[in-house]
Amino acid sequence: KDAGKRTYRVFSSEMVDKAAEQVWLDSNLRKALVATDQLSLYYQPKICLKTGVVRSVEALVRWDSPERGRLSPMQFIPYAEESGLIVPLGKWVMQTAAKQAAQWQAQGLDIRIAVNLSARQLCDSTIVQDFADALRQAGLIRCLIDLELTESCLIDETLAHALILQFRTMGAQVHLDDFGTGYSSLSKLARLPLDSIKLDQSFISSINEDLTSQAVVRSMVAVAQQLNIQVVAEGVEVEDQADFLKSIDVDSAQGYLYAKPMPVKEFEDWLTNRKK
Ligand code: C2E
Ligand code: CA
Ligand code: CA
Ligand code: CA
């Protein structure tokens, strides 16, 4: 009985913590979406492994809460997905990225921006319209916004297929993020009209220690090449990893070896210094 009571109490206090956290996040994220100076996008470049050229960046959201300071996406994205706030947050991300792309275009910088989409956003019936609105409001003549989907976005394959086609018709490239970590079969990859896969960083981090990871990466890359799908490696931290990826013709790479995600000004400086 005693143990039973104790177990119950622990379980219950965890539930209270989680519920309290959900309440805090809900009301504060709602405020952040109005007073948008709390939210910002950081940009991390994708580097072409053959030429070293940067043609695109990934936008990663950051939240500076007046109460708690900097929160990483892992601290609030899952809650936002649960509450549905990911939909307005996702709209803000698309709009902000589109404005930034238009600004770079006006400065003569030809850079595409990829935004991350949650499965929850894809289920929202207005996602295509929201994307189109973001492009139009930013005055983007050419679509410079790409989308990163995770395997959880592909569970309803018929819906995913139709949406990917619509985004591509609008000029967006569609990438499959965290590839290899989910349950997607390789045959699904063959059926979907994707532009690229992003090999998850968990594979990249072990490439140089273990031959199994090398073999796994090699075979994923070979399949993608057969299907004419580009390959991006994420989480590249050391030169040896980049060398291996180059040797098997991976198209591009992203990671701390090249640059961390940066605020817009810092990214622009990084790009300028690199060209010198
Ligand atoms: P992700 O899309 O897989 O993004 C890659 C994460 O790895 C980013 O973490 C990035 O900062 C980090 N990273 C980049 N290079 C390296 C490296 O060389 N080594 C290591 N160890 N890490 C590296 P971040 O910014 O904390 O974002 C975490 C996740 O949050 C993202 O994973 C993505 O799933 C989600 N996320 C971020 N922004 C958004 C957004 O605007 N919308 C949605 N739906 N999700 C987002
Ligand atoms: Ca991503
Ligand atoms: Ca990823
Ligand atoms: Ca990830």
Helix tally equals 11
Low-confidence stretches: none
Round the Cα radius of gyration to an integer and report it.
Answer: 20 Å
What is the helix/strand order?
Answer: HEEEHHEHHEHEHEHHEHEH
Shape: globular
Q: Mean pLDDT, rounded to whole units? A: 93
Q: How many distinct beta strands?
A: 9
In this entry the ligands are:
ligand C2E, calcium ion
| Widest sheet: strand ordering | 1-2-4-5-6-7-8-9
Strand proportion, as a percent range, falls in: 15-25%
Which class best fits the helix and strand makeup? alpha/beta
- Give the helix proportion (percent range): 40-55%
End-to-end separation in angstroms reads 73 Å
Main β-sheet description: 8 strands, mixed, barrel
Protein name: Cyclic di-GMP phosphodiesterase Gmr
Task: Report on this structure.
The chain has eleven helices and nine strands. Helix 3 packs parallel to helix 5. The model has no long low-confidence stretch (mean pLDDT 93). The N and C termini lie far apart (73 Å). The chain has 276 residues and is of the alpha/beta class. The structure holds ligand C2E and calcium ion (3 copies). The site of ligand C2E has 23 residues, from strand 2, helix 2, strand 4 and strand 6.
Give a short overview.
The chain is of the alpha/beta class.
